[in-house]
Amino acid sequence: MSTQANRYTLDNLKFDNRFVRELPADAETDNYRRQVYQACYSRVIPTQVAEPTLVAYSPDMAAQLDLSADVCQSIAFSQIFVGNSLAEGMDPYACCYGGHQFGHWAGQLGDGRVINLGEAVTRQGEYLTLQLKGAGLTPYSRSADGLAVLRSSIREFLCSEAMYYLGVPTTRALSVILTGKQVRRDMFYDGNPQWEQGAVVCRVAPSFTRFGSFQIFTSRDDLGTLKKLVDYTIAHDFPHLGSPTPAIYLQWFTEVCEKTADMIIHWQRVGFVHGVMNTDNMSILGLTIDYGPYGWLENYDPDWTPNTTDAQGRRYRYGNQPQIAYWNLVQLANAIYPLIKRAEPLQQAVSHYFSRFEKGWQTMQAVKLGLETFNPDSDESLLTDLFKLLQIAEVDMTLFYRGLANLNVNSTLSEFYLFIEQVSYKALDHESTILAEAWFNDYLQRLRKNTINDQDRITQMQSVNPCYVLRNYLAQEAIDQAEQGDFALVEELLDVLRQPYTEQPGKSRFTAKRPDWAKQRAGCSMLSCSS
Ligand code: AMP
Ligand code: MG
Questions:
Q1: Successive 10-residue mean pLDDT values, the chain, 531 residues
Q2: Which residue, among 188, 125, 155, 170, has the nearest Cα to 55 in the 3D structure?
Q3: Distances from the Cα of 383 to the Cαs of 272, 369, 375, 442, 467, in angstroms?
Q4: Of all atoms in ligand 1, which is nearest to the CA of residue 110?
Q5: SS in 3 state form for 323-340?
Q6: What pLDDT score was predicted for residue 320?
Q7: On the CB side of 343, how many CA atoms lie within 13 Å of its CA?
């Protein structure tokens, strides 16, 4: 099927493609792997596939784009969002960017398997870039195939929507569509490649610009293109800052530091571990971006990372995410330094990241524990002792915080022991019992000083402590069924995760602790970058 010959219209979807109109394009239009210079993007047409099959779409994301259920279930929709045809107004391109991977400069990376379709303008006037992940080779594909498999596409689709409903800044997903093509993947890089079903996710965000989008130009001493991209980003994504000057660049960077701090606070709040916080995976808007080998904390363990590729250094473990975000911001500061030429204010801005993070993190922890405010005198040790207890007693993070609201100043120590036993992965041993007793007594004492009433405390706690998160094993169950052609669990999970803070009748199975089978199962606790 020819892309140009089949221009379906999605009547309500209007495009205004500012990125391609205002930024420098790669002069080469043939699609082959190469280094691309002095350009922010290359025009490229998605690869045709034989047999698109809709797996799922997000009704809320569709509604925001003014796409009805009928449209989303139409053939035209699957053809467009698998990459077989272009809707009126689309002008597809892949972006050039670089990045530091695992602490080392990696040179040009770019959209190796992502093709942007264009910028949709919603009824409210919001600009949303739509992009296909897994739609074939681009000039940035390096040695890889430009494709994505069903398991990782479902993981990205479900998790980005789940994060959105949890109130975590994130890119979103409109759809996931099977291509009908088989894709070969060596999931654990151990010489055992398997054929898997290929799929394409349509991702949605106001901007997909990354820290690495700026780094690439500075690394090549191409300050002209760097300035164009910075000015463009300020004009369209930070318009309140006004016309660019060196002072505005600093303000902009300070705001990026703030947005990044806020995003990380949310990750820590819900127990999300990104898994690959390379600078090409850091959004300039402070959105969670590029869902690969991410995972959710089950038993609270700050050293945990789901990413087997990072198992040695554990650079991207849960407890290290705040430091890594800082490290990444320093790389971004280095990248924009030539436009500002003053190191000290840039350093101040990155230190501001830490103060904002620290303060926000403390407030967030207080809210999670049902305290009216964070009191450094008592609450610092309350938190340290809690984290020790959660780790040593192998307590499920999500269940603990959610269930804690049910205890109050009149609760007894034996009630607390019982609660801990219900939400942990091992029986209370001597050490955990001692820690539990000490912490519970301190917590009760602290609660007695609380000025908020009990009902408000519960409401406060339940507005930040979800009962439903995309538990690693739940995503895997949905994937196992989808690989057999049954998409019901994907749909049900998406539906449950739309209201993560509200207990829903008949859905308690989605709050269950990780079952034993999932402890060592690939895809549940161990993931690689192979996707
Ligand atoms: P990630 O680890 O997903 O952030 O990817 C790092 C870089 O590798 C990015 O430039 C991706 O576009 C590229 N990449 C990852 N997987 C593929 C693939 N299957 N085909 C082409 N490029 C890929
Ligand atoms: Mg990436």
A1: 53 92 98 98 97 98 95 96 96 98 98 98 96 98 97 98 98 98 90 95 98 99 98 98 97 98 98 98 98 97 94 95 98 98 97 97 98 95 98 98 98 98 97 98 97 96 98 97 98 98 98 92 85 89
A2: 155
A3: 19, 9, 11, 10, 21
A4: 10
A5: HHHHHHHHHHHHHHHHHH
A6: 98
A7: 3
CB within 8 A of 32, min separation 6: which ones?
Answer: 139
Cβ 154 vs Cβ 175: under 8 Å: no
The residue among 262, 88, 287, 265 whose CA lies nearest residue 204 is 287
Query: How many whole angstroms from 291 Cα to the centroid of ligand 2?
Result: 8
pLDDT of residue 9: 65
Helix ranges restricted to H, 10-103: 18-22, 59-64, 69-72, 75-82
Among candidate residues 471, 464, 320, 474, the one with its CA nearest the CA of residue 401: 464
Residue 16 annotated as catalytic: no
**280 Cα–ligand 2 center, Å:** 6
489 close to 497: Cβ distance less than 8 angstroms:
no
Q: Ligand 1: list residues with CB < 6 Å.
A: 109-113, 140-141, 144-147, 276, 280-281, 290, 292, 529
Residue type, 470: L
The pLDDT assigned to 199 comes to: 98
Distance CA 252, CA 340 (A): 11
pTM of the model: 0.97
Predicted confidence at residue 528, as pLDDT, reads 85
**Annotated active-site residue in 60, 70, 222, 280:** 280
Give the percent of the chain with pLDDT over 90.
93
- Decide: 498 and 154 in contact? Cβ < 8 Å: no
Contact 80, 9 (CB under 8 A): no
Q: Which atom of ligand 1 is nearest to 278's Cα?
A: 4
